[in-house]
Amino acid sequence: MARSMRSRFALPLAVLSCLVACHDGTRASGERPDGHDGEQTRSAGAQRTPRPRPAGTFEGAPVSLLDEYAGRPPVDPDEAARWQLPYQAKRIVVSLLAAAAEDRIEDLPLLLAPDARWGLPDRRQIESRPVFAGDGGATFFDAFRSAAARFRGRDRAQPGGRSATFVCPPMPPGPEDAVRSGAEPYWCYFVSGDRLDLLVFRLMVERGRAWITYVGLFPTRPSGPVAVARDDAPPPLAPPVIRGPADATPPPARPRPATAPSG
After folding, report:
1. Cα(251)–Cα(215) distance, rounded to whole angstroms?
2. Residue 58 within any structural domain of the chain
3. 149-166 pLDDT tens trace
4. Is 33 a member of any domain?
5. How many degrees, rounded to 5, is the angle at CA 219 between CA 215 and CA 222?
6. Which domain holds residue 86?
7. 81, 110, 138 from 75: Cα distances, Å
8. What's this model's pTM, rounded to 2 decimal places?
9. DSSP result, 69-97
């Protein structure tokens, strides 16, 4: 039965439960690319002079997220092929930030799935479009660099400094196995100190390796809480826990891989 009323969510609540965004929208048909235009992306990167990091507000901090992760080397293809979820989710996201900091668009095919999309920070992927849409990911990359420059980074020269809050929900063994196998996605996000701005990442194991499959961001920083009117609920941040019999023996905890850097 159709709902008679639309639910409205203010963004501070949505940060913890819905990650909703400000506009309604639908996925355009026929936009899904057949595969990476990785060669075009690498060629574009080889032909460009790296640009300076975009100006930003940094939430009043001395440095931005891009400044914090600047100077890191390019993504190692062999390492990227071994990344596992959920253990190395932050490592993958940080690698995207490092690529954005150094204007290395050629790193995108190692981090984002061939059919990755980007749009507003909503798990329903509102107003989403392909990352690799014939321009090697340039439109997405510019938008991501500008958005990341709005978030505060940790100034290593100042003891006790902190960057924007990064959240990946912890999971018990059952849902973790679903993420590890590629049966379910894993969502992580950065949230600003006032909880108005978001960078959202959907990660998933596809084609035998871990990728970012969706990036959500606001084109400009929201000036206040944002509401959305939608009938459909967003998917959960993490796979649901399926309860067994009360006397069932819980499965043993899986060991963390020895080569699983967190960031």
Report:
1. 33
2. yes
3. 999 999 877 777 788 999
4. no
5. 110
6. 15-24+38-230
7. 10, 7, 18
8. 0.76
9. TTTPPPPPHHHHHH--TTTTHHHHHHHHH
